[in-house]
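Retro notes
What went well: the complex prediction finally ran end to end.
Inputs used:
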Amino acid sequence: MDSLLFWAPTIVVSVLASILVAIVGVFAVARKTSYMAGSIAHSAFGGLGIAFALGLSPLLGASIFALLTAILVIWIKQRFKAYEDILLNGIWALGMAIGIFALHLTQGYVPDLFAYLFGNILLTDFYDAIYLGIALLVIAIFLYRFYDLIQTVSFDEDYAKVLNLPTLSVSLGIMIALAMVTVLLLKIMGMILVVCLIAIPAAAALHLTHLLPKALLLSILFSLTSVLGGTGLAIYWDLPPTPMIVFLSLIILGVAFLIKSRQ
Amino acid sequence: MLKIQDICFGYDANNLVLDRINLDIEKGEFVALIGPNGGGKSTLVKLLLGLLSAKSGSMQLFGGSIADGRSRVGYLPQYAHLDFSYPITVGEVVRASLMAGNPWRKRQKNDQLKLQETLEEFSLSPLQNRPLSDLSGGQRQRVFLARAMIHDPELLILDEPTTALDAKSENHFYHWLQGLVPQKTVILVSHDLSVVSRIATKVCCLNKTLVTHASGESFSPNELDEIYPCAVEFFAHGHPHRVVGHHHHG
């Protein structure tokens, strides 16, 4: 009983985080924007560094940087399409550089930024669960209310413009959701795991089906299997959870490719 | 209905794709837009839908701005740029146009009825819940036509609508299109001069500049030489259909 209570926050947070990242991941992968999660996550690292240097909340610093990056990414996509990949790599590197530079200037206690790179899903509390629960609820409400709008803009942006639909707001909304989920999961999962889980379970799901509700369910299933399975194996074998989760998600992706190639 | 005055467009300052285009389209007209590849047909369509901005000149749609009027247009684009692996169903694609001009609109009771009727009209009912990626080129073309028609538009703009259709479907399509006029106004971008000169009320030939003829009148060899840079062979169903002009290179 005591053991179950000890692991309860980890299990609840793992389940909520897996669902959240799986849902956002499906839209990011389907819209071919999952690589932007990398730019957002690394720029958030810059925000973390500055927040530590100024003695502010790291979550606030990361959120501001991630939000600004989301807006910048959309602007680059609209205005500098031809240089998109170069500019996104620039943001990626700049975020890390700002983070390391700011930490170098930080007086006194220097926090372990390594934790934000690799996270530690075993060190979570119920506050994390509450934040994730609220984020999941907000995203579910938006998805339910604006399903047709999101689908139309995501599939054919030019046609959506002809219909006078707010294409920029929808793209920005999706990018902000991606940024916020990335920031929320940064401390729990770490940058590497967030980038991995946004792309891989969703890619495996979308490889098996082109029906959105089915893809969402499969993505959640694959994400849960990777996170809970990887964490379970890590506890059992006394190994770090992040690599186990990454390995498991890649095995699932491989199996999905194998299943599809045999059909 | 549509008034285009002295429109110029170019991707860079020294190289105009469209040069001083003037065109008036009245309600109930069937206008065919022909011309060589790269002549600016799709560019003109994108300009009059507000997807591109003209360098100079003015346009009026339904007596107002393009932005105000374009949601009353049924548009069938060339869809080569679309990603068909995006997870969307036939029903979702077709239903999209019901949001025309009102993005915050909730689904209404008779939306489903309207969708069923439109899918029925384009023989798409059994495909309603199938992902678009499962469909053939011809089926997708029908889906985009249904999307262009479901909101009962006053003006229909079709950009090379028969590219994915076989001969039988193409005939059926042109027959259906003729039946829409004069209740609807149609702008058809096409390569098939033999067909469009038979069914259109106005034929506009576009190669940077615009030459317009009432239907039935043929373009003179000199005009065609000017518009098309080489011998004009109109292709239909993948093979030469009709040679309407010759230009001797030397």
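What we learned: The interface with chain B takes residues 26, 30-32, 148-149, 151-152, 154-156, 158-166, 206, 209-212, 215 of chain A (CB under 8 Å).
What to try next: split runs per interface for comparison.
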